[in-house]
Design goal:
heterodimer; A: alpha+beta; seven-stranded mixed sheet; 26 helices; globular; B: alpha/beta; nine-stranded mixed sheet; two-stranded antiparallel sheet; disordered C terminus
Chain lengths: 744, 243
């Protein structure tokens, strides 16, 4: 029988089968330290044991891919010898327990993943989900999360250039905090997290190790219950100043050729970094925890190996070059501690004052971790919620519906949030937050990169396959609207407990959707993150895959924004509107209804649309572009007028096929995908329409900019007529008012 | 003859590259980074203390940076009349170092704030504003959590009397309203100078407003002013005194 009782194994999140696998891998019973090491490395968070079989199917290759999944971040070639290095990661569980530090350390973690690759981080985005804002606990949580992201990103000097936020009941006890970071590196200087070369020294640098965050990875692999607040000690405290020093010092060390490999200590801390670096290099690592800088006394090897103290890096340096590396760290007032050596036996050996306390084959912890093909089952709720019966006629006038939609926090101006983020530092930000994709220029070249993170949990709840396709399509369409060609993607998969077959079904279907969409749109996935067990008291979040897409703009002077540029331009609607209300913001806001099937996406039509946007903007034919998302055409048109100083619009659009009562409303608020509103100088209208026609993309001129009002007619009948100033005031104030109330 | 700018780099500075880029790439002047542990400004004509979070701003903004070895050289440079510009965290460091009067409090709403604001140029007889029109309104970004400038009523009166208030937060039309004051600064103060008028500190970021592609090029005039001052020999012999 086992040397440990069931309570100990439970506490480590290991079941009997897994324990027997450990005994088999070692050929003996593990020590307590070894048990701890296995428990974190085989946790869902580190091992991807439930998700791996599904993730294998994602398309991960392409002509531009320099680094696919498996390293600290992915990388794609952007020309001029440069690489865009990027990844998205979740910090959901810590951000619920301790919002400020949870979110802050999430930012810190993803930044380390990027500079570990030898890239200088230049942009951050985030995708956030909270409960409904009328709940004071939700407001407090959101306030802390936003402040935490700001506190860390601002201090370290990386601009937060975009993101998205949505609010649904299901996220009340499980907010989502997904952070995306992008960096730039020379394509031929990408650094790997690898340990090799027997006898090469292993260095530890950064913050001292404390007892914080022990079992953080295990915490992130379990559901919440009423006792979750007790897990607060498992959330770490961030030190952005330390990280800034590490960032600068590590990039300086990388400029020498004294470095073999480097990895940050994120989840599972020293344990994960040593065994992963060893496994990647086919080598072993021998360290003595006595040499690990510690900020508390009496720490055991178990605690030191499992601590998730932040802002720590592990480096393997060429033997004989130690002094050179140490001097760079000393310049930045950092101490690089020599804690061990690379060996040739493939073992992770941990000593305390010379005595071996753990000795495990690195592959047993990484490549040979358990992989589960968990049972999947169509959820019982699905058939019911997919049924949608519209009321006989719409409940409110369409002008009032537009007002209510503009006041919905999902659609409202997010200035209260992004004003807290430094979004201009590094002087590259060409398109500011709050306008679709964020765009940063690449200094020293003519290029720019457009970045977007998108996901719609409600769509995925109603149909995870289609919802995932919509997420990929929207993120890619957003960068295309900036005039970019989508060249790579990263995903963050937020789901409930994978041990429940209906959750696993959601996960499997969503990954199939991402796979289908990325293949059709030819956008490789270069890495990402899976966050499971997002449940509180047995209630799961909506399945929420979030896609981060990077797009390349060859000529930064051609970047497009979403706002109209002047009066007298033609407005062209690209794409087709159909009666598609399933999962729409209109149904939720006006009818308090979450039902139906999400909009259909014809991926070939989507691809043609994105091609049209990239090519027409490259040739300077467009003045602005904005995609239709939540709230449909009416909201999109209104948003095009915001921030323009009151440039309005007059349009007349064709009617959608629906019942007589619903024709007008469906035309305005249906959420059909693959639609974009562009403004075009008069002299270019014919060229734009001809190009759309040649690509098989439906496009029609629907009106003109100007007039200071939002005047929308359908087949000649005026449907909406609101002053831009009124609409913009509603949109501006809606989110802020929740937080002003609190201050009063 | 190119003007030689020194951009001081403290641990935690993060607008150092932006200032360097604006001076060198946009303005075509010469710029060098000077690490805070250095004691020599290498013959600089102008010194910039850039924005950021020096030493993490952990004690108080700028409180630890003032003890950096390089600050003695900056003090001597300023004492000899050399032009010094402190931007954001650089302004905070100048306050802590006693090179400018007053102190910073947290923003009125207790939140970090990043956005474009308008400031009015109050005085044009400093090396950084001599190229401005009197009362010119400039649009520049702010990005700070502690930009709420504070001083005693007596000190404020002295500042006003000596015409040491150089920039004030205003609306687009140039009026110093409470609504246009983003952080609660006393008398809407966005920037000040010392009595000798060669040391200027401000919270907005002129280096982020040097290219239209980034939303505004209004900040360029501050850097152009000091280049002009250098070219016409309006700067005192600080540079040569330091050499």
């Amino acid at each position: 029988m086992s040397a440990f009782d069931k309570a100990t194994l439970d506490r480590h999140g290991l079941n009997d089968d897994e324990y027997q696998r450990i005994v088999k891998a070692l050929g003996r019973e593990p020590t307590m330290t070894e048990l701890g090491i296995f428990s974190v490395m085989w946790s869902e968070h580190c091992s991807y044991k439930s998700s791996r079989v599904h993730l294998r199917n994602l398309p991960t290759t392409g002509p531009r891919v320099l680094q696919g999944p498996g390293e600290n971040a992915g990388a794609v070639d952007i020309g001029d010898g440069l690489a865009a290095v990027f990844k998205i990661e979740s910090h959901n569980h810590p951000s619920f327990i301790e919002p400020y530090q949870g979110a802050a350390t999430g930012v810190g973690g993803i930044i380390r993943d990027i500079f570990t690759m030898g890239a200088r981080p230049i942009a951050l985005l985030n995708s956030l989900r909270f409960g409904q804002l009328d709940d004071p606990h939700v407001r407090r949580n959101m306030d802390g999360v936003v402040a935490g992201i700001a506190g860390y990103g601002n201090s370290i000097g990386i601009p937060t250039v975009g993101g998205e936020i949505a609010f649904e009941e299901c996220y009340t006890g499980n907010p989502l905090v997904n952070v995306f970071c992008l960096g730039l590196a020379r394509a031929d200087e990408i650094v790997k997290g690898v340990a090799k070369g027997t006898g090469n020294p292993v260095y530890y640098v950064g913050s001292k190790t404390g007892r914080d965050g022990i079992h953080g990875a295990t915490m992130a692999s379990a559901e919440f219950d009423e006792n979750s607040a007790e897990k607060r000690p498992a959330v770490q405290v961030g030190d952005p100043f330390m990280e800034k020093l590490l960032l600068e010092a590590c990039l300086e060390v990388m400029q020498t050729d004294a470095l073999i490999g480097i990895q940050d200590m994120g989840a599972a801390g020293l344990t994960c970094s040593t065994c992963e670096m060893g496994a990647r290099g086919g080598a072993g690592i021998d360290i003595d925890v006595t040499h690990v800088p510690q900020r508390e006394t009496g720490m055991t090897p178990y605690e030191i190996m499992l601590s998730e103290s932040q802002e720590r890096m592990l480096l393997v340096v060429k033997r004989g070059r130690e002094r050179e590396v140490e001097e760079i760290f000393e310049k930045w007032d950092l101490h690089a501690a020599h804690i061990g050596e690379v060996t040739d036996d493939g073992l992770m050996r941990v000593r305390e004052r010379g005595t071996v306390v753990a000795e495990i084959p690195t592959r047993a912890l990484t490549d040979d971790a358990p992989v589960y093909r968990r049972p999947m089952e169509t959820p019982a709720y699905l058939a019911d919620v997919q049924k949608l019966t519209l009321p006989a006629k719409p409940l409110v006038k369409d002008g009032d519906a537009l007002r209510r939609l503009l006041a919905s926090p999902v659609i409202a101006n997010k200035r209260w949030v992004y004003r807290q983020y430094d979004h201009m530092v590094r002087t590259n930000t060409l398109v500011m937050p709050g306008a679709g994709a964020g765009v940063v220029r690449v200094k020293g070249t003519d290029r720019a990169l457009a970045l977007s993170v998108d996901g719609n949990g409600r769509y995925c709840y109603l149909d995870p396959y289609r919802g995932a396709i919509l997420a990929v399509a929207e993120a890619a369409r957003n960068v295309a609207c900036a005039g970019a060609e989508p060249i790579g993607a990263t995903n963050c998969l937020n789901f409930g407990n994978p041990e429940r077959p209906e959750i696993m079904w959601q996960f499997g279907r969503a990954v199939e959707g991402i796979t289908a969409a990325c293949k059709a749109l030819e956008i490789p996935i270069t890495g990402g993150n899976v966050s499971l067990y997002n449940e509180t008291d047995g209630k799961a979040i909506y399945p929420t895959p979030v896609l981060g897409v990077v797009g390349l703009i060859e000529d930064a002077s051609k970047v497009l924004g979403r706002s109209f540029k002047g009066t007298g331009d033609a407005i062209v609607l690209v794409g087709e509107t159909r009666l598609e209300f399933g999962g729409s913001e209109y149904l939720k806001v006006v009818h308090d209804l979450i039902a139906g099937e999400p909009p259909n996406v014809d991926l070939q039509a989507e691809k043609a649309l994105q091609h049209l946007l990239a090519s027409a903007s490259r040739d300077g034919l467009l003045r602005s572009a904005h995609d239709c998302a939540e709230g449909g055409l009416a909201v999109t048109l209104a948003e095009c007028t915001f921030g323009t100083g009151g440039i309005g619009l007059t349009v007349d659009v064709p009617a959608v096929a629906a019942t007589a009562e619903w024709t007008q409303t469906a035309t305005l608020f249906s959420e059909s995908a693959s639609r974009v509103v562009v403004s075009v100088a008069r002299e270019n209208v014919a060229a734009v329409l001809a190009r759309a026609h040649s690509l098989g993309v439906p496009a029609a001129e629907i009106g003109t900019t100007g007039n200071a009002r939002i005047s929308v007619s359908i087949k000649g009948t005026l449907a909406i007529d609101i002053a831009v100033s009124e609409a913009e005031t509603i949109w501006d104030a809606a989110l802020e008012k929740f937080f002003k109330q609190r201050a009063a | 003859m190119r003007t030689k700018f020194a951009v001081i780099v403290f641990p935690g500075s993060n607008c150092d590259h932006d200032a360097h880029y604006a001076v060198k790439e946009v303005l075509g002047q010469s710029a060098e980074f000077i690490w805070h542990k250095e004691t020599d400004l290498r013959g600089a004509d102008v010194v910039i203390l850039p924005g950021g979070f020096s030493h993490g701003d952990y004690l108080r903004t700028g409180a630890i940076a003032r003890f950096s070895p390089v600050m003695d050289a900056v003090r001597n440079f300023a004492a000899a009349g050399g032009p010094v510009l402190g931007i954001c965290n650089g302004f905070q460091i100048l306050l802590e170092a006693g090179l400018l009067p007053g102190a910073m409090l947290r923003n009125r709403e207790l939140k970090f704030r990043c956005e474009h604001v308008h400031v009015r140029v109050e005085q044009i007889d400093t090396p950084f504003t001599l190229g401005c029109r009197p009362e010119q309104v400039l649009r520049m970004p702010i990005a700070h959590g502690e930009g709420n400038y504070f001083t005693t009523p007596e000190e404020l009166q002295k500042l006003e009397q000596n015409r040491q208030v150089i920039f004030r937060y205003v609306d687009a039309a140039g009026a110093a309203t409470d609504e246009a004051n983003p952080n609660g600064s006393v008398a809407s103060i966005a920037g000040i100078c010392n009595e000798r008028r060669n040391v200027v500190g401000l919270m907005p970021h002129p280096e982020r407003a040097c290219e239209l592609a980034l939303g505004s090029a209004d900040g360029l005039v501050l850097l152009e002013s000091v280049v002009k001052a250098h070219a016409i020999g309006a700067l005192t012999a600080a540079g040569s005194a330091m050499a």
